[in-house]
Amino acid sequence: MSDKPLILIADDEEDVRELVGMNLRRAGFDTVEAADGLQALTAARGRRPDAIVLDVMMPGRDGLQVCQELREDERTLRIPIIMLTAKGQTLDRIAGLEKGADDYIAKPFSPKELVLRVQALLRRAAVVGEGTELKEGPFVFDLASVRLTINGSHMELTLLEFKLLHLLASRKGEVVERDHILREVWGYTGNVQTRTLDTHVKRLREKLGEHADWLQTSRGFGYVFRAPAAVAV
Q1: What is the pTM (predicted TM-score) of this model?
Q2: Alpha carbon distance 147, 136 (integer Å)
């Protein structure tokens, strides 16, 4: 059995699968392919890939439906997902992130950039599994098991959601700038214009429910994790 990371490539266009697969294999990955949404779900659940490259427009089930089902399944909840979207389709990108995708890249894309995105996601997934525990207010982050509990109750998060919230909690009370978050969590460099961060924060707030006020916005700068004014910590 290979010890190389396994990447699932789900796209109904054979030439896209071949291009992505060739470049990922050159970079040291193993690959498995799916030509439609149902094949993608079967492969993800059966093979448990280390990451998934998932096209939005596919027959059977589209990429958005597949992403949502993967995020609702404990077996595939934490597998990093990069969505492939059509150039200029902003709504598809936002919808993909809202369904639980970790990142997106627009077609036509640079194969080198896609490989770098996959490598960055896997590096950050590996780092999350190291370390011990962080406690802040009602939040307890167990880095070894990638598990968050709030007042003793388990909160289901994707790897990137966990990484994002842990980064902010580890710097409690400090405004963490957008560029720093994008670099540390997604591996972006330079001045990147993306809705990825904002959409992930929105999803996190929805999941946190009554504790959403701990995740606060510093307009024009970034985000800060701190106790709401009504909570004494």
Answers
A1: 0.70
A2: 14
Distance (Å) of CA 181 to CA 130, 204, 207 = 19, 15, 20
Please state whether beta strands 215-218 and 147-150 pair in parallel, antiparallel, or not at all (unpaired): unpaired
Q: What is the mean pLDDT of residues 160-187?
A: 89
> What structural domains and CATH numbers belong to the chain?
6-127 (3.40.50.2300), 131-225 (1.10.10.10)
- 3-state SS string for the chain: CCCCCEEEEECCCHHHHHHHHHHHHHCCCEEEEECCHHHHHHHHHHHCCCEEEEECCCCCCCHHHHHHHHHCCCCCCCCCEEEEEECCCHHHHHHHHHCCCCEEEEECCCHHHHHHHHHHHHHHHHHHCCCCEEEECCEEEECCCCEEEECCEEECCCHHHHHHHHHHHCCCCCCEEHHHHHHHHHCCCCCCCCCHHHHHHHHHHHHHHHHHHHEEEECCCEEEECCCCCCCC
pLDDT digits (tens, 9 = 90+) for 80-95: 999 998 766 667 777 8
Q: What is the dihedral of CA 189, 193, 196, 199, to 10 degrees?
A: 140
| Length reported for the chain | 233
Reading the block at residue 18, the tokens are 């071949």
Nearest to 225 by CA among 165, 182, 185: 165
pLDDT digits (tens, 9 = 90+) for 71-128: 989 889 889 999 998 766 667 777 888 888 888 888 888 899 899 989 988 877 665 5
β-sheet bridge partners, residue 177 = 222
